[in-house]
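Below is how a single chain appears once it has passed through the pipeline. First comes the sequence as given, then the structure the pipeline wrote out for it. We keep one example in the README because the format questions we get most often are answered faster by looking than by reading.
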Amino acid sequence: MEVDAELLSFGRAVRSRRIALGLSQEELADRAGLHRNYIGGIERGERNVGIKAVYALAAGLGCGPSELFSEAAPLR
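Resulting structure:
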């Protein structure tokens, strides 16, 4: 399965912020109200995240949704 570059970029931004906070995927999942496996899929760029999940991730990471997008590497 080919990974989409934009999804991978967003996932890397989530992972980077999670690690900076010292959180495991399971801890972030608990904070965000999402499943741990879903967090892993996001971080690997395997999941196309919906808006509600972006807001949940941002809340779990203590930031705004726009911060996650701005931390994702520009592709163009």
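The CA atoms of residues 15 and 43 lie 6 Å apart.

See the next section for the split statistics.
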